[in-house]
Amino acid sequence: MKTQIAVLVGAFLLLAAWPWIGSSYGMDLVNKIMIYALLALSLEVLVGGTGLICFGQAAFFGIGAYAAVKFTPSTGEAPSLLVALPISIGLAGLYALAVGALSLRTQGVYFIMVTLAFAQMAYYVVHDTPLGGGTDGIYLYAKPALGSWLDLDKPLAIYGFTLASLTAVFVLLAIMRRGQFGRALDGIRVNELRMRATGFSTYPYKLAAFTLSGAIAGWAGFLFAVKDGFVNPELLSWHLSGTVLIMIILGGMGHLRGAVMGAFAFTLLEELFRSEAVFGSLSKHWHLGLGLFIILSVALLPKGLAGLPRQIRERLAGKLLGTHHIPADDAVRPQENT
Length: 338
Fold this sequence. Notes:
Layout: H1 2-21, H2 24-50, H3 57-70, H4 81-103, H5 108-128, E1 138-139, E2 145-146, E3 150-151, H6 155-178, H7 180-197, H8 203-228, E4 230-231, H9 238-251, H10 256-273, H11 276-279, H12 286-300, H13 308-321
Antiparallel strand pairs: 1-4, 2-3
């Protein structure tokens, strides 16, 4: 545990020092990855925490992004960060509350399809109506500020605020998983029927987790809109929901650090396979290379990147003992906090 905490602290310190180490392009890329990491953490609350696979996470992300733009004063005056951010988080959380109240009454593949349906509804609202600017999207002409203390129109300021947001959410979720709420979600994930048989009401806990997940996704959407200064309907598309699900699978479900690692790994791999300097003309078909790599990763690393050190230790232990080491089923083990 101490080693994990030390590694995590070192990783966040490296991110804090990155603006003075990397180039301006590198800083912008890492900023985008941290926003995706925040989005991946929001989905990890559901998938890794309660075992609920939501295929509509992009809807909450997009609502947070559009709220950041739509509630900016038309005069071009910079809105207050203390007003703009809570609005984005609140609207995304409210939509998640409404979606969760209905979709959580279903299970399995039906839950996946219902969340996808609600996400597509939100997508077509901004795609086909003037509310979201249609396919052209909307520009954010004035970025939020906190008086003279923090102006998110400056690259270093938005980078620092994104890092602070990622750190705060990561710590909050780690503490939550250690508490009663987190233990209740673990029980639901392992065996919800047994929880119900003991007289435990699981629905309020799942709804709270779903709402929290949507609110965090809205936070990530707000940061994305502020960083790029532009939003379009693709932020709510099912493609993004699938991408963020792949991120947490690649990083390792059930681990907060896995969600962050998966976001970094996926985005950096995408940049690699799209690079003409590395793959030449094959870079036009980067989806194929990335897909094959992900398939190999899932096959060789069933526990994701976060489980790689443990997988190596188990194999080494098996070789030293001269026998194959068969670990216990992860589904009955206590959930890791980070």
